[in-house]
Design brief:
Elements: E1 5-6, H1 21-28, E2 62-65, E3 71-73, H2 77-84, E4 88-98, E5 131-141, E6 146-149, H3 158-169, H4 179-184, E7 220-223, E8 229-231, H5 244-252, E9 256-259, E10 270-272, E11 277-279, H6 284-289, H7 316-320, H8 345-354, H9 358-364, H10 368-373, H11 383-395, H12 405-414, H13 427-433, H14 448-461, E12 475-483, E13 489-496, E14 499-502, H15 511-526, E15 537-539, H16 541-549, E16 552-553, E17 558-559, E18 564-565, E19 568-574, E20 580-586, E21 588-590, E22 596-598, E23 601-603, E24 608-610, H17 655-662, H18 668-677, H19 683-693, H20 730-737, H21 743-752, H22 757-765, H23 774-789, E25 805-815, E26 823-830, E27 833-838, E28 841-844, E29 853-860
Parallel strand pairs: 1-6, 14-20, 15-23
Antiparallel strand pairs: 2-3, 2-4, 4-5, 5-6, 7-8, 7-9, 9-10, 10-11, 12-13, 12-19, 16-19, 17-18, 20-29, 21-22, 24-25, 25-26, 25-29, 26-27, 27-28
Helix pairs in contact: 8-14, 11-13, 17-18, 18-19, 20-21, 21-22
Amino acid sequence: MQRRGALFGMPGGSGGRKMAAGDIGELLVPHMPTIRVPRSGDRVYKNECAFSYDSPNSEGGLYVCMNTFLAFGREHVERHFRKTGQSVYMHLKRHVREKVRGASGGALPKRRNSKIFLDLDTDDDLNSDDYEYEDEAKLVIFPDHYEIALPNIEELPALVTIACDAVLSSKSPYRKQDPDTWENELPVSKYANNLTQLDNGVRIPPSGWKCARCDLRENLWLNLTDGSVLCGKWFFDSSGGNGHALEHYRDMGYPLAVKLGTITPDGADVYSFQEEEPVLDPHLAKHLAHFGIDMLHMHGTENGLQDNDIKPRVSEWEVIQESGMKLKPMYGPGYTGLKNLGNSCYLSSVMQAIFSIPEFQRAYVGNLPRIFDYSPLDPTQDFNTQMTKLGHGLLSGQYSKPPVKSELIEQVMKEEHKPQQNGISPRMFKAFVSKSHPEFSSNRQQDAQEFFLHLVNLVERNRIGSENPSDVFRFLVEERIQCCQTRKVRYTERVDYLMQLPVAMEAATNKDELIAYELTRREAEANRRPLPELVRAKIPFSACLQAFSEPENVDDFWSSALQAKSAGVKTSRFASFPEYLVVQIKKFTFGLDWVPKKFDVSIDMPDLLDINHLRARGLQPGEEELPDISPPIVIPDDSKGTISCQENMPSDIDESSVMQLAEMGFPLEACRKAVYFTGNMGAEVAFNWIIVHMEEPDFAEPLTMPGYGGAASAGASVFGASGLDNQPPEEIVAIITSMGFQRNQAIQALRATNNNLERALDWIFSHPEFEEDSDFVIEMENNANANIISEAKPEGPRVKDGSGTYELFAFISHMGTSTMSGHYICHIKKEGRWVIYNDHKVCASERPPKDLGYMYFYRRIPS
């Protein structure tokens, strides 16, 4: 039990004299050098523990280190004290009590609550009629747990008082990510007060809008000067279009436009072409009324339909969320929800599915003591620590407890309310994993499939020793390319982590119904009538699987047999089957106008899946291989004389992905490195590599390979390569050894931290028990030397091959018209029944919509 020695009594807190001000000052003197005043840029965590989801609302409160400003729950503060020696913490606690009832039984009249002074990001209703809140802060000095109540201006040294005030008044480190405050930070347009509006008689109907220049019906903007409705381009909300609204501004100079479909009584998305940013218009209601739009009666939707319009009775939103059914809430280990931070449901759905997999549970939650004990000095910036924290929060059941009647009665009698935490908030996790990523770090909706691959990449880069839970997803794809003219073939292999199935729309089994529905829908739109009941295309899963296995044409295929471009076809097969197969239905696409669209289809996904017939067979008798000759390197005109050495280029780089990236404007050599270092996983994953490395000085330098006098980047081995293949750079090893550390210790620390110097030093300090492992070092050094002198083919990526027979255990569904909007939820089969995870709500599923999913997770059935 924690021992508390109050300054106003003897240790143990009973019957002593109150200590004088000088005694308090004397007690703090030894610790004064460690107490800091937060500076600009310091992140002050006073809402959430670095290792758990404890907060000031938790029973034990929260301890904020007065030097690092990291926060720790009661269970973890001792660990930080032992590791760092920091002794002074601010203890924060918010008490929740039932309000005193009046004589008539009702709550007493509201008064301004002066007992609340903590600025916390919580869901507390501070104006509740039923409960009252009281905040408490005090300094605690370890290891004796002396407590000093705050505020205590008279007795505390001035520096300590200033530091305490600064911590208490600091803003949340996540404040900029909150969608509400993000909108509040928008500037008021300088054109809003004196905006000219033409009296041209234009009136905007409540629906049926289309661009005046190209007939697009999505991403439409209303110019607030002349009432023109025109399509946007790639603006701040990532919507697509042909840019006619911007062209209109350049022609006419009318500065402000509002996005149709976002208008609600609370506001709308307004953009200023002149100021080149989203803005606020304080007079928006007046400006909209000029064109016949009553802002107070608008309800923002994607297509302009209002809530009182007739909507399809089987809408995607209703079916996927199982609306209208009495769903039973689920509590306990594995049934903890994740609160939505504002378009964070894509992350929540993926993480719920990930932590339902035993390999991830063992790798992180199973290693919790070791990961937490050896975490760096700032655990909020460590991937493995935050993964373990999230996994424990989801699986422990600590944050998913059902209300017990006896406990409620006892709480009422004590006049203190202990609120049951309804899910956990993944703020710290999201802030870290999305750091430096242009999309995931925003508040916009994202593609769950892209986040899944981003997460796998992070797991690969931060693997714990030789343990890599993402091995369960990795498989090899054999690609067979045939030259149509010479009939010669080439077989190559690449790494992948999910199977992408095309939607075979042409195989719909209800084509007549679809044609009739489309005609009726167009007629209803033309006559401004309610839309008919939705008819969804029904696609057989077998047709999608057949479309996946069919040959496809290869654009710009260069035949090494002809030494020229020729027609080519490609087929893909599984060179290995993963332990867990992730299947993505390619529902999202771009039209010819580059507007994102979604196929609203029903696919009869099987509970049991057998893809053994897709096993690769390799070179067949009678087939003749294409010569192993690389195509000539074409240097773009804007490459500024960059010359590439063809002989230095590995032959397995996916040239189509390279050219996709080059067409975006990135240097050709950078594109080659991105594709190579991401294992030919495609342009999307390579694009993420470019974003992370584009500030490096050698970003556009040619790719040089070991054996040609160069050294590949430390990030090259990200797909299952043995940890012994990753020899740390000698210059970094030299830096650490120059500080007095052993060479073997430096090498092991760098390998454990992916060659990150700062993290390696943290690792060394957190591993004081390090003992030289001679066998390990000899094996590592010999392997490094072998890599330099050996010309043998390097070991391929690790895969867990086996049978291609699987059973479905989870799927993620998306509601909305594109990945840039809408909502994600997850269904997981646990203990023989399906469970729906809809943000913080976790319930037993009554009718899982397996035919409407976007990503499906299958586990191998042992043969």
